[in-house]
Design a protein that fits this description.
The chain is of the alpha/beta class. It has 2 domains: 286 residues, Aldehyde Dehydrogenase, Chain A, domain 1, CATH 3.40.605.10; 192 residues, Aldehyde Dehydrogenase, Chain A, domain 2 (3-Layer(aba) Sandwich). It has a 7-stranded mixed β-sheet, sandwiched between helices. Strand 1 and strand 2 form a beta hairpin. Helix 6 runs parallel beside helix 7. It is globular, with a radius of gyration of 23 Å. The N and C termini lie far apart (79 Å). The mean pLDDT is 97. The structure holds ligand TXE. The site of ligand TXE has 27 residues, from helix 9, helix 10 and helix 13.
């Protein structure tokens, strides 16, 4: 282990040492009911860095009870007072940015600059954005037309109650914030269940919420496996809503488990997003954008631009540039200066991606670069060099299934109608990108693409105010923006007889 990594571990030692007490219920951290632990690893070295509590159904039950008790104190606060708590969480995230970013990089593997300037800084902005909403969430007066009588009718936006937030390992702090901030702004109390592979920043976030002085039990944390802690949360009758980001398969389980108690759901699932380069685009900019679109976070991004459609007239030149730029990406430990790409989250995830690399070659695609495990000091980590496939057909598995790794599939196209049809020919519809200098084409194609977000001449842009979520099998409901806030409320119509 390099000196820089061991120094970083020393800096966050306090959090690593208390990770076994990661069940935070009613403001108090403690171990799991069964006392079991889950080891968590630095994916760049394979070294165990901490052990978190393996929460059980009993822990979930205690957390839901604490969250239920906290609803009164939380909802009695004025909207302005609730908003001040959210502003304070945003400030505390910023004050602890270095620690949070280091934890995220150690736990997930992503480069520290990404942890710092993407995950941590946007997480703070998300809390600030929803802090402002607390005083702006309002109902309407309704102009009704009754056959008899005279009424004043209005709507109230009420919180749902206790909500369960289940988040994945690719953006652990960021996605937790996407869900936690609007849930709290709308007046709900929460039970947060992070991924068993990356729970450290969620623990810190729960601590910061308590430090901000939120009433005990408004934010509860149950770490643990999906099949135990997660399953208990989705089946719990005291939970009004589940907001989930993760795999489509787990999303389907959540839909089934929600049926008996008719929980409300927001699901942000997988993707196979099309990124289209028209021949009139700024090709150098498009090449940079296409690389960032797929290789950010080692390709483990739900909206990754994994299907790159390039116009045939510029295809060969474009692919040449992509391959040489991909080959130059600096792999390394995320804490080491100069690292541009870290390891995959786990050995199992790397093997899954390697399975797709093999299937691409077997089905006749050409691997232009990458897709190998680097040698030397990176050998113990879950590294994989960035891969680019050409000669890809739309029916190949690498063009249809979510790979969730650093693998770009490039497909050639000839005209606009054809590429829109092929881009939409996917079970998913999370995001899409297009690169063109023709303003009419940009709007025309953006309107025709079946995706929850379309980026023009850029990719992966996010803002707390812009809703994010999927069409088709990419899920339903939205994170971020006003829509997420509304999704954490229910509407009541109140009729007041005036006669
Ligand atoms: O996801 P899971 P995994 C995709 C990606 C990846 C694949 C598998 O393709 O390769 O999913 O990743 C919790 N009840 N995405 O297995 O299982 C789990 O503990 C309740 C895309 O890690 O969906 C974790 O907290 N909860 C995705 C969360 O669900 C359960 C991001 C996500 O894990 C549960 C991650 C259950 N029965 C993976 N089973 C994206 N859209 O960004 C698991 N969980």
């Amino acid at each position: 282990m390099t000196a820089v990594v061991s120094e970083a571990i020393d800096e966050v030692r306090g959090v690593l040492d208390r990770a076994g007490d990661s069940i935070v219920v009613g403001g108090r951290p403690g171990p799991a009911a069964g006392g079991d632990l889950i080891e968590t690893f630095d994916p760049a070295t394979g070294d165990a860095i901490a052990s978190i509590a393996a929460g059980t159904a009993e822990d979930v039950d205690r957390a839901v009870a604490a969250a239920t008790r906290a609803l009164g104190p939380w909802q009695e606060l004025s909207p302005a007072a609730r908003g001040r708590f959210l502003y304070d969480i945003a400030s505390l995230i910023e004050e602890n940015a270095q620690e949070l970013a280091t934890l995220e990089t150690l736990d997930n593997g992503k480069p520290l600059t990404e942890s710092m300037y993407l995950d941590v800084s946007i997480a703070a902005e998300v809390f600030r954005y929803y802090a402002g909403w607390c005083t702006k969430l309002s109902g309407q007066t309704v102009p009704i037309s009754p056959p008899v009588g005279n009424f004043f009718t209005y709507t109230l936006r009420e919180p749902l109650g206790v909500v369960g937030l289940i988040v994945p390992w690719n953006f652990p702090l960021l996605i937790a914030s996407w869900k936690l901030a609007p849930a709290l702004a709308a007046g709900n109390s929460v039970v947060l269940k992070p991924s068993e592979m990356t729970s450290l920043t969620a623990l810190r976030l729960a601590e910061l919420a308590n430090e901000a002085g939120l009433p005990a039990g408004v934010v509860n944390l149950v770490t643990g496996f999906g099949q135990t802690a997660g399953q208990a949360l989705i089946e719990h009758p005291g939970v009004a809503k589940i907001s989930f980001t993760g795999s489509t398969a787990t999303g389907q389980k959540i839909v089934a488990a929600s049926a008996p108690s008719l929980k409300k759901l927001t699901l942000e699932l997988g993707g196979k997003s099309a990124n289209i380069v028209f021949p009139d685009a700024d090709l150098a900019g498009a090449a940079q954008g296409a690389l960032a679109a797929i290789f950010l976070n080692q390709g483990q991004v739900c909206c990754a631009g994994s299907r790159l459609f390039v116009h045939r007239s510029v295809h060969d030149e474009f692919v040449g540039e992509l391959a040489s730029a991909a080959g130059a990406i600096q792999l390394g430990h995320g804490l080491v200066d100069g690292t541009e790409m870290g390891p995959l989250i786990s050995g199992a995830q790397r093997e899954r991606v390697e399975g797709y690399l093999a299937s691409g070659t077997d089905e006749g695609a050409t691997l232009v670069c990458g897709g190998v495990r680097p040698n030397g000091e990176l050998t113990p980590g879950n590294f994989l060099t960035p891969a680019v496939f050409t000669d890809v057909r739309d029916d190949m598995r690498i063009a249809r299934e979510e790979i969730f790794g650093p693998v770009l599939t490039v497909l050639a196209f000839d005209d606009e109608d054809e590429v829109v049809r092929r881009a939409n020919d996917s079970e998913f519809g999370l995001a899409a990108g297009l690169w063109t200098s023709d303003v009419k084409r940009s709007h025309r194609v953006a309107h025709r693409l079946q995706a929850g977000t379309v980026w023009v001449n850029q990719y992966n842009m996010l803002d707390p105010a812009a809703p994010f979520g999927g069409y088709k099998a990419s899920g339903y409901g939205r994170d971020l923006g006003e829509e997420s806030l509304i999704g954490f409320t229910q509407t009541k119509s109140v009729w007041v007889g005036l006669d």
